[in-house]
């Protein structure tokens, strides 16, 4: 994806839709910062070129090779933060697995059959119980309103 020399003053929000990009060029743009989360989900990104004043997203430790030339910084081969020897600042909770989610970013995915906040709930969502209660409440409320409000309806 070549976005070089597009007069971008900030990262366009539409960039979030290009998570399948492997090569991305943002050089020759008057970018001043790369907001945190700009590259969330860019797990396939292998080569990123940014203007020289900017750092590689996730820092130099998120990339295997960072080179600087005349006017740009080239970030090559994204590292998997889950496999690094450096201890993670936010380790994943029990019953979950670390998964990369972009340069220097991780997400914790719950192991099956766990789900919910911090992967503490076991089993599946009780769809039948939820649907039954919701359906019963809806029908009951509808009948109550129909019974109390039908006398106010004008008949032809």
UniProtKB/TrEMBL annotation:
Disulfide bonds join 110-119. The chain crosses the membrane at residues 125-146. The keyword Transmembrane helix applies. Keywords: Disulfide bond, EGF-like domain, Membrane, Transmembrane, Transmembrane helix. InterPro entries: ATRAID, EGF, LRR_dom_sf. It comes from the Eukaryota. Residues 78-120 form the EGF-like domain. GO terms for biological process: positive regulation of osteoblast differentiation. The keyword Magnesium does not apply. PANTHER family: ALL-TRANS RETINOIC ACID-INDUCED DIFFERENTIATION FACTOR (PTHR15926). This is ARAID factor. It comes from Cinclus mexicanus.
């Amino acid at each position: 994806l070549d976005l070089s020399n597009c007069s971008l003053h900030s990262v366009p929000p539409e960039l979030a839709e290009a998570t399948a990009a492997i090569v991305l060029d943002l050089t020759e743009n008057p970018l001043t910062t790369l907001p945190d989360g700009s590259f969330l989900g860019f797990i396939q990104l292998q080569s990123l070129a940014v203007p020289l004043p900017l750092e590689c997203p996730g820092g130099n430790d998120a990339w295997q090779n960072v080179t600087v030339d005349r006017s740009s910084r080239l970030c090559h081969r994204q590292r998997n933060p889950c496999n690094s020897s450096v201890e993670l600042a936010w380790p994943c909770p029990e019953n979950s697995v670390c998964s990369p989610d972009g340069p220097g970013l991780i997400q914790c995915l719950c192991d099956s059959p766990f789900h919910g906040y911090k992967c503490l709930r076991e089993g599946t969502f009780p769809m039948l119980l939820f649907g039954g209660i919701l359906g019963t409440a809806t029908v009951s409320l509808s009948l109550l309103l129909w019974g109390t409000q039908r006398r106010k309806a004008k008949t032809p």
